[in-house]
Amino acid sequence: MCKRVENRLKGLKKHMEYDRIDGTRKSAFTAKLHKGNKSGHKGVNWIKSRKKWRAYIGFKGKQIFLGNYENKEDAIVARLKAEEKYYKPLLDDYKNEQT
User: Fold this and answer.
1) DSSP 24
2) pLDDT single digits (tens) 27-56
3) Which of these, 13, 25, 61, 79, could form a disulfide with 43 (CB 3.0-4.6 Å)?
């Protein structure tokens, strides 16, 4: 393996260690929306085949399905509740460690 690839892999590994809190990426909390996002909210997308809105959240390297919804607003509420349940404790612990 060439030196450039080795250095890139080392940098990536260091970033991944720094960017994780208990297996969940910190950058996922603040990431921008994908340009193809139709809902205007992270973790909520339109499922054309079902004609429903799907809500999901990534946590500890897994994608957690939160349900399919007739209304976009219901899917957004489900996602926000999941953020409170899964992300808030991690962020609170992280902030306490920093101080």
Assistant:
1) E
2) 777 778 888 888 999 999 999 999 999 999
3) 79
Determine contact, residues 66/80, Cβ cutoff 8 Å. no
**Closest Cα to residue 40, out of 81, 64, 66, 76?**
76
Q: Which two tokens stand for residue 52?
A: 């429903």
| Distinct helix (H) and strand (E) counts, the chain | 4, 5
Among the listed residues 56, 51, 5, the one whose alpha carbon sits nearest the alpha carbon of residue 28: 56
Query: 């994780």: which residue's tokens?
Result: 20
For residue range 67-84, list pLDDT tens digits in order.
Answer: 999 999 999 999 999 999
Decide if 61 contacts 54 (C-beta within 8 A).
no
Q: What is the DSSP letter of 71?
A: S
Q: Three-state SS for 43? A: coil
